[in-house]
């Protein structure tokens, strides 16, 4: 399987992946998704980020001098991404799917196998890179949960922690509020969106805005926050970091 490159930066420029002094090269996977889309836009606006490589099946449609897009269809085999993933400082991995939208087998493939395969190639191409993973509340590294989503997220977390990356950041958000209207993937999400104002008041630590989450993922990755607090960031942790980053509210990139 081959990967094709597109974007506003030329191929010769992208191959060098040399940022300005003090800036970082970041990779994002899943930038056409809700959280990944916010994370991409935040990366592109961030002064500490010099170069962004977006890896996905579809173009993100954002022209920007920092951005190079690499289209890759089959995440079961990421070998073709080896060159694009060289010279990277960190990856923010937001690829995923919703429970109930695919079969159990597909859910595990996307959640576990794709994550492990991408991490394998990134580790080989950029051994000093860090890895930020969009997991989920209730992720169970013991594998004992009755919920497939929890077991598979936990399995992926375990694999990343054992992969040898110098920094791994595991984000476990609870309900992610979209912020802007979208077509919800299932009834549960439609219901949560409808009752969100009340849900946020009753369960303040069980919600997080998508843009808040994206910003925290990028900032934690850039600052190597795990050196101070460990690799797992539960929803309450994410909320606290978001508030400390922007006490008056996170900018809306929609």
Structure, explained:
- It is a single chain.
- By secondary structure, this protein is of the alpha/beta class.
- Helix content is 39%, strand content 19%.
- The protein is built from nine helices and ten strands.
- The strands form two sheets. Strands 1-4-3-2-5-6-7-10 form an eight-stranded mixed beta sheet, sandwiched between helices.
- The radius of gyration is 17 Å and the shape is globular.
- Residues 8-16 and 248-254 have low confidence and may be disordered.
- Gyration radius (Cα, Å) is 17 Å
Number of helices: 9
Please mark out the parts with pLDDT under 50 across 5 or more consecutive residues, or reply none: 8-16, 248-254
Biggest sheet record: 8 strands, mixed
Overall morphology: globular
Beta-strand residue fraction: 15-25%
Distance between the termini: 34 Å
Structural class: alpha/beta
**Number of E strands:** 10
What does this entry show, briefly?
The protein has 254 residues and is an alpha/beta fold. The protein contains nine helices and ten strands.
Q: Keywords, please?
A:
9 helices; two-stranded parallel sheet; alpha/beta; disordered C terminus; 254 residues; eight-stranded mixed sheet
Furnish the topology, listing elements before pairings:
Blueprint: E1 3-7, H1 11-16, E2 24-29, H2 34-45, E3 49-56, E4 67-72, E5 90-93, H3 104-125, E6 130-134, H4 148-161, E7 168-172, E8 175-177, H5 187-194, H6 196-202, E9 207-209, H7 210-223, H8 226-229, E10 232-234, H9 235-245
Parallel strand pairs: 2-3, 2-5, 3-4, 5-6, 6-7, 7-10, 8-9
Antiparallel strand pairs: 1-4
Helix pairs in contact: 2-7, 3-4, 7-9
